[in-house]
Design a protein that fits this description.
Blueprint: E1 18-21, E2 32-35, E3 39-43, E4 49-56, H1 76-85, H2 88-99, E5 113-118, E6 126-133, E7 138-145, E8 148-157, E9 162-169, E10 175-182, E11 189-196, E12 199-206, E13 211-221, E14 224-229, E15 232-238, E16 240-249, H3 267-276, H4 283-298, E17 302-304, H5 314-322, H6 328-345, E18 371-372, H7 376-380, H8 382-386, H9 394-415, E19 425-426, H10 445-460, H11 463-484, E20 486-487, E21 493-494, E22 498-499, E23 514-515, H12 519-539, H13 543-555, H14 602-618, H15 624-636, H16 640-653, E24 662-663, E25 667-668, H17 671-684, E26 685-688, E27 691-694, E28 705-712, E29 716-723, E30 726-734, E31 740-744, E32 749-754, E33 757-758, E34 768-771, E35 778-785
Length: about 775
């Protein structure tokens, strides 16, 4: 009986769910990301040397220093007096001096190490191909040397929490490789490699004491295996080989905990060993388990934006788009790649996806690859619910549920308020100390995170989640605002100090201007209090609190239109230092919130559009995620052509050949991938204020297509097919049995069927249909005529 099950399937050159290339990656940015949520690897696909750049979501630096908040709330009164006196610059500088954190940043997310495989004599490889099959979550590399075909398959298993490599060749006894586990040179880290029969690894420790370890098990069929040196094993003249790798950190270890008596001075190494002792070293078993798990999430959504798929390699397709060609199904691939990245970097048991998901190869990554909370982390989760990956949002909720005690202390110490304050940045150590001087004085992070708790309830209808997790979190945010807001001279309740991340006004302090009542803060307050009012009624609790929350909503300033017809970004219509600023903070009310809409607030919608146009007119350079947010906003304004314009720029100007998002040159930040994915969903399906809209922002160029599996609020799974820029068929799958209120935003008349029987539908307007549904039933809209 064979040790491993040999593969019989031929190498698939391409399909609509495959990224593929004719050459290895020449830089880390163009590798293939693999992930199990906790474990990550970037696969280079090399010929003479294969490199897997490894990551673990819990490997961060952890320097010994004071990370408790200091009592600073006593300074608020003086700071507020300065703001109300109108000296914007002096007041902002005082707030930064007295409220900001110390001169250091949060701890950086760290590269774990590298697994390398060397192949001597493979210099003259032919017919090289590498691919990432999104439908399976598997990387494959294949080439021929002297008539022998070599093949590697690599995947990250969520089921077993291991990285799996399977090496084969089509000629017996021709597989020879040197396998090494190491880490880049780092003067702050000691590394002790080791190797023995069938296993290799290393134990490591940062100077401040954070320990971590990696171990790989190696099995082969045929040939021989021997230890060359610590950290290196050689496989010689084999038929095939299997490598199974795991990693562990000393802190917050998600793997099977050690039982009593297992403790050693090298805990992570012991965890790796104990864990791998229970992982089956059989490729078929591992692959089968992976393919029973991963597609359950990925296969929920299918998307086509035209007929057929290109047979060109992905990099050539992207280059053609940069040269002016349109490739709509490359955008569809980009959307599915975004869903793949979320599955790979955010699964139950893992940390939330950070600025780079779970992939980083730098000791000092940009912005420490931290949890950035004035847009970036939230954008990571914009596609989670609508793109049918609700489970992938669990790490977000788990992490911030655990942050509440620290956030309560911070709110009291810094602002003298009950409830919670969460800083603009944090890291794996889950502290709420402000540690970004000049940027720290912003109180909106918790309110923005609360939106995601509410979304989860809106999409899933999970009342237990609403009661036990969403409502308690929103309640803490509401408590903070009850205490933080103060009256201005006009009797309005305003947040002071306040900030519109990360923008500046003429005459304000730097690097970010502070003020009285930035528009975004008002929008965040409106968002969380309106949601907690609704939640309180659903749960039948805190009735006595509702009038208080409503009074606050009535007392905060209304949104205003400024001198240029734009949505005003501040309570005073200041001139901006940078009118084309990358952040669209004051447009939170348009997207991701639903306070501004074409139907309910047409004047504010027009002002939001003017703001978008001013940003576009004054911009010299954006980053990828700005285009993603722009596309989402234009979609809310039913401007599909404008949304597509920004998505096209996202692809052509801010995307690597491996489809990863960029900011400021060659700097990888993952939120642009997630924001672009969410934007496409927003163009095809919207669900706000009880109305489900079909193709609300369809660009002219997207003349035909089909999507299956997107999810609308109220628990409706939605399939849409369109031709000639008009809906042909829609199917609603009702999960919760709620009443459906549907608007089809293209011309046509439809008959609604359930089990083949036509329904009597309410028709509030020409394109709107309303009817009751039953949980588990499907409702089909069949086109009758134009």
């Amino acid at each position: 009986m064979k040790m491993f099950a040999s593969l019989t399937n031929d190498f698939v050159l391409w399909n609509e769910l495959t990224l593929w290339y004719k050459q290895p990656a020449t830089r880390w940015l163009d590798g293939f990301p693999l992930g199990s949520g906790t474990l990550g690897a970037m696969v280079m696909g090399g010929i003479q040397e294969e490199r897997l750049a490894l990551n673990h979501d819990r490997l961060w630096r952890g320097r010994s220093r004071n990370r408790t908040t200091e009592k600073k709330s006593q300074y608020l009164s003086e700071i507020r007096q300065r703001f109300f006196a109108g000296d914007l610059k002096a007041a902002g500088e005082l707030a930064n001096k007295l409220l900001c954190g110390p001169e250091h940043a949060v701890e950086p997310f760290q590269p774990f190490g590298d697994l390398t495989l060397s192949f001597a004599g493979h210099e003259k490889a032919q017919n090289y191909q590498r691919q990432l099959d999104l439908s399976q979550g598997v990387v494959s590399i294949e080439y021929a040397v002297a008539g022998v075909k070599y093949r590697r398959e690599i995947f990250a298993s969520f089921v077993h929490q291991v990285i799996v490599l399977y090496l084969t060749c089509d000629t017996p006894s021709h597989l020879t490789t040197k396998i090494k586990l190491a880490r880049l040179a780092d003067e702050d880290c000691t590394l002790e490699p080791w190797a023995e029969d069938g296993a290799l690894g290393y134990c490591a420790s940062f100077i401040e004491g954070v320990k971590f370890a990696a171990e790989a098990r190696v099995k082969q069929r045929g040939g021989k295996q021997y230890v060359e040196c610590p950290g290196t094993i050689c496989v010689e003249s084999a038929d095939e080989a299997l490598i199974v790798l795991t990693m562990a950190t000393e802190e917050n270890n998600p793997l099977t905990p050690l039982s009593k008596g297992d403790e050693t001075t090298d805990l992570p190494a012991a965890v790796c060993r104990k864990y791998l002792d229970n992982v089956p070293l059989d490729y078929q078993t591992l692959r089968t388990a992976h393919l029973e798990d991963y597609p359950k999430l990925f296969d929920r959504v299918s998307l086509s934006l035209g007929t057929g798929a290109s047979d060109k390699p992905t990099d050539e397709r992207l280059t053609a788009m940069k040269n002016g060609e349109d490739d709509l199904n490359l955008l569809a691939l980009y959307v599915q790649f975004g869903r793949y990245l979320l599955i790979s970097s955010s699964r139950p048991g893992s940390l939330p996806a950070n600025l780079q998901g779970v992939w980083n190869n730098m000791l000092q990554p940009p912005w420490d690859s931290d949890f950035h909370l004035d847009l970036n982390l939230q954008m990571n989760y914009w596609p989670a619910e609508v793109c049918n990956l609700s489970e992938c949002a669990e790490p977000l909720f788990h992490f911030f549920d655990g942050l509440i005690p620290e956030a309560q202390t911070a709110a009291l110490d810094l602002y003298g308020a009950r409830g919670i304050y969460i800083p603009i940045t944090t890291d794996v150590w889950a502290k709420c100390t402000p540690e970004a001087p000049g940027w720290d004085v912003w109180t909106g992070a918790a309110a923005w995170l609360a939106q995601h708790y509410w979304w989860h309830y809106e999409f899933t209808g999970d009342e237990a989640f609403l009661k036990d997790r969403a409502y308690p979190f929103m309640r803490q945010v509401a408590l903070f605002y009850e205490d933080y807001l103060v009256k201005d001279s006009a009797g309005r309740l305003v947040p002071v100090p306040s900030q519109s991340p990360e923008n500046r006004v003429v005459g304000g302090c730097e690097p970010v201007s502070l003020c009285v009542a930035a528009t975004m803060d008002l929008e965040l307050i409106h968002d969380v209090l309106s949601h907690i009012l609704t939640a309180s009624k659903i749960l039948g609790i805190d009735e006595e609190e509702r009038s208080k929350w409503q009074d606050i909503l009535n007392a905060i300033p209304s949104l205003q239109v400024g001198q240029y017809g734009q949505l005003q970004e501040w309570l005073v219509d200041y001139e901006e230092v940078e009118p084309g600023h990358r952040h669209l903070s004051h447009l939170f009310a348009l997207f991701p919130s639903d306070q501004i809409s074409l139907e309910k607030t047409p004047q504010l919608a027009q002002a939001a559009q003017t703001s978008l146009e001013r940003r576009e007119a004054h911009s010299t350079s954006y980053c990828g995620w700005t285009h993603a947010w722009m596309a989402c906003c234009w979609a809310r304004l039913a401007e599909g052509n404008k949304a597509w314009e920004h998505l096209r720029a996202l692809l052509t100007d801010f995307t690597t050949f491996s489809l990863l998002d960029l900011i400021f040159g060659d700097c990888f930040q993952i939120e642009g991938n997630f924001g672009g994915t969410a934007a496409v969903a927003e163009m095809l399906l919207q669900s706000h204020h009880g109305l489900l809209r079909i193709l609300p922002a369809l660009p002219e160029q997207w003349s035909e297509g089909e999507v299956k599996g997107f999810v609308a609020r109220g628990g409706f799974e939605v399939d849409i097919r369109w031709q000639k820029n008009a809906v042909e068929q829609v199917t609603l799958h009702s999960r919760l049995g709620k009443k459906a209120f549907v608007r089809i935003d293209t011309p046509g008349e439809f008959l609604v069927l359930c089990d083949g029987v036509a329904l009597e539908c309410g028709r509030p307007s020409e394109r709107e249909y309303t009817f009751s549904t039953t949980a588990g039933k499907s409702y089909e809209f069949v086109r009758q005529s134009f």
